[in-house]
Every structure is written in C-alpha cells, then in structure tokens.
Design a protein that fits this description.
The structure is a homodimer of 194-residue chains. Chain A is mostly helical and 194 residues long. Chain A is built from nine helices and no strands. Chain A is elongated. At the A-B interface, helix 6, helix 7, helix 8 and helix 9 of A face helix 6, helix 7, helix 8 and helix 9 of B. Chain A binds a DNA duplex (19 and 19 nucleotides) through loops.
DNA sequence: ACCTGAACACCGTTCAAGT
DNA sequence: ACCTGAACACCGTTCAAGT
C-alpha cells in the first residue's frame, strides 16, 4: 500500500501500450489514468524510460514464471510464441533498444533463460536432443522462436497464403530436425555409437 | 537531378539514424543537413514515417541485392548477421512496426526472400538440406538468423562470457543440424532409402 | 515523502505566402 | 513544382511551491 501510485502508473502504461502502441504511452495520459498529475511519475521513476523499463521487467518476470512452470520444451516455446503474437507491443518493448540496462529486466531475462536451459538438459538426457552445450542449444531454440515471431509481426514471413509457415510451425520444424540429429535416433546412434 | 533534394533528405536521415538512433532523426535536422528548411521534407514525403519507409526500402533493396549476388547459403546468412550487427539502427528500422505498409519495402523484402529460397532449393538438390517445402526451410533459416541478431542486440543472448554463442555460431549450428538430417547423410539415407 | 501548476525546450505538422 | 517562415498542438522534463 505504501506506493500504490507506482503500481497504478505501471498499470496505466501497460494499458496504453496495448491499446495504441508505444507512441500512445505519454506521461501525461499515464498520470491522468492513474489519477495524478502529469508529472507525478517523476516522483516514482527517473523518467519515461525508467517507467517503460518497469513495465518490461514486470512482463518478462511473468513470462519467466510461465516458463518455470511449464513441463515440456515444446510448450515453453509455443507459450513464448503465443504470448508475443497476442501482445506484440509488450514483446517489442521487452526486446527493444534500451539506452540504460535495467538490472531488474536483466534478472528476469536470466531467470527465463535458466528455466529453458534446464528443460534442454532434461531432453538431452532422454536422448531427444543432440548433445553439446545446453546453453547454446537453448539459445538456438529461443533465437528461432524469437525471430519467427519478429518476422511475422514485421510482415516479412510468408506474406502470401502459399508457404504459410506460422512461428509455431517453425518451432515444431526445428524440434523435429533436432530430434532427427539426436542420439535417440537409431540412424544417428549407428553413426555415433556410444 | 530532378529530385536530388529527395535523395539528400534520405541520405541525411540515414546518417542521423546511424549516429544517434531513431530519436535523433528529426525532420528539422534532416532538413538542415540537406540544406533546406525544416518542413521542406513535406514536399517529397507524406510525413516522417514515409521518409523512414524510404530509408528502410533503400536499405533492404541493397541487402536483397547482396543476397542475390552471394553464392552459398552460409555466406548469405552470415552476411545478413554481419549487416545487422554493424548497422543495428537500420536493422531495427527495416523490421520495425510500420503503421502503413510501404509497397516499396514489401517488394524489396520479396526479392531477398526469393534469392534465399533459390539457394535453399539448390542445396536440397545437392542433398545437403532436408527435403520439404523450400519456402518453409528458408523461413526457418531467416528466422534463426534474425532472432539471433535481435536477441544479441537486446542483450538477451548469453550475457555472460560463458556460453558465448554469437549469431554466426548459431547459424552454423543450425546448418549443421540440417545437414545431419539431410538425405546426403549416410545414416539418414539408410533410414529413408530413395 | 509525495504531489501540483506553470513554464521551457523540442518536435511533427499545417498554412499562408513567395518564386 | 518547390520552398520558406510563422504558427499550433503536443510532449518530456524542470522548478518553485504546497501538504
């Protein structure tokens, strides 16, 4: 209760972001929706970017928590894709260009990364993913999911209805190729016997 | 010579974009650097976004031409990554959120896509890539390269120096997995005989 | 400690006017 | 057809002042 104004400001900022994109997030309108004056935000945040960083950190923290509770690697990646497609403005904000690196945001990103790596290790032990540095394999998976969403949002992925590969499809494609190259594949086991 | 002012405006915009990011691109400074008044741009472009769209289209057109002249799939993807890392502001602009879709930009994207698909088809015929829809495979490759760059620029990829996988490394990783799953791999050929 | 109202500098855009 | 200068509305930020 001590600083409920701060939460109200972040809430208003998220609301405006979803409604009209980043240019709709003005400190004046944020303050108005939070029931305070147009420069009250400066009593809680250094400036506009610090407010947006708080929004991004909260969003990424929730996303990281969702990753931690997920059980399968595929569901994590599909959850990532679904979130980004449903809330494109939040997705762009979280991974946008920050002039000052918020440590809160970095911590949230690290949590999500760790959860993903744990799932990769688990799948590697089951022989369903290739061997090798799990961090690097996790980076490969996240990069593909991220890029597929980003290109889709930018309209640069299969503009026509022909080769209509959705981000979810591409995630499944990659997982399939990795399974093929995994030690659990009998053909691969023959090539590289234990 | 008819509209050299237009080119001067685009040149100035690119220069400002590289120097100080998108917020440094103000119509006033663009006009000043082009040697005209602060609202002369309105005689050549609908508004600021149209000017930025022209910048993006020119950049993507050049990128597409580079793809068309490249000989190997790997060199195309590494060229994409190197360009994005060297000119992050241009990369972000090209794939940013456009409220109005410039057809010039869309055409440039289509050209680059077609060149990439042609290279994929060629590699498939050589048995060095898995079979299947080449458009979809091209989308997979582009999505990975794009996502690896985007996460790196956002600082969300291997922040520590430990699992230091660069975008170029991830591109090579994916190509390696795809080669493993390709018909040219003897183990795979044994599983799926022609 | 938290908030307000006025004020400043800056920017995108419009308009009347010039050649 | 292309350009200029003034003007308008809007926004981020600062400041003096209030409780």
């Amino acid at each position: 209760m001590a600083s409920s104004t701060r939460d109200a400001l972040v809430d208003a900022a998220v609301q405006l972001l979803d409604e009209g994109g980043p240019e709709a997030v003005t400190l004046r309108e944020v303050g108005h929706r939070a029931g305070v004056s147009h420069n009250a935000p400066y009593k809680h945040f250094t400036g506009k970017e610090a407010l947006l960083a708080a929004v991004a950190a909260r969003e990424l923290t929730r996303q990281g928590a969702a990753v931690a509770t997920a059980t399968t690697l595929r569901s994590v990646l599909h959850g990532y894709v679904d979130w980004a497609l449903a809330r494109p403005a939040r997705f762009r904000l979280v991974f946008g260009a920050w002039s000052t690196g918020s440590e809160e945001l970095a911590a949230a990103a690290e949590t999500a990364r760790a959860a993903l790596i744990a799932l990769v290790v688990e799948q590697q032990r089951a022989g369903r993913l290739p061997d090798g540095d799990p961090e690097r394999l996790a980076a490969l998976l996240q990069a593909l999911a991220h890029g597929a969403v980003a290109l889709t949002l930018a309209g640069h992925l299969s503009p026509g209805g022909k080769g209509h590969a959705s981000p979810g499809d591409l995630v499944d494609d990659l997982l399939g190729y990795l399974v093929t190259a995994a030690p659990g594949n009998p053909a691969i086991r023959q090539l590289f016997p234990a």
